UniProtKB/TrEMBL annotation:
The lineage of its organism: Eukaryota, Metazoa, Ecdysozoa, Arthropoda, Chelicerata. One of its GO terms (cellular component) is lysosome. This is alpha-L-fucosidase. The keyword Oxidoreductase does not apply. Residues 27-77 form the Glycoside hydrolase family 29 N-terminal domain. Keywords: Glycosidase, Hydrolase, Signal. InterPro entries: GH, Glyco_hydro_29, Glyco_hydro_29_N. One of its GO terms (molecular function) is alpha-L-fucosidase activity. The keyword Signal applies. Its EC number is 3.2.1.51. Residues 1-19 form the signal peptide. It is an enzyme of class 3 (hydrolase).
């Protein structure tokens, strides 16, 4: 029975929201941009994008590390060095 009460309240709220005047809805005019640099440069940039350091993140990201073929290069090189040290120590003893 509780779910029926919630359903009735939901339907009433949906009808009330549907009956609200359209004056509350603000419509914006979308500017028309042409496919050229002059037109595109007129668009406003959001402050969070203009003031952020996103270029540093993209440039110094995970895959900016030299990997010489794939991102597992340094792991393979390190494990080979460990294996070579183990072989050298074993041959000495």
């Amino acid at each position: 029975m509780v779910s029926i009460k919630y359903l009735i309240v939901f339907i009433q709220l949906a009808l009330l929201a549907h009956c609200l005047p359209n004056e509350l809805v603000v419509e914006r005019e979308e500017p028309n941009y042409a496919p050229n640099w002059d037109s595109i440069d007129k668009r406003p940039l959001p402050s969070w994008y203009d003031e952020s350091k996103i270029g540093i993140f993209i440039h110094w990201g995970v895959f900016s590390v030299p990997s010489f073929g794939n991102e597992w290069f340094w792991l393979v090189v390190h494990s080979m060095l460990v294996a070579m040290e183990w072989i050298q120590r074993k041959s000495i003893h």
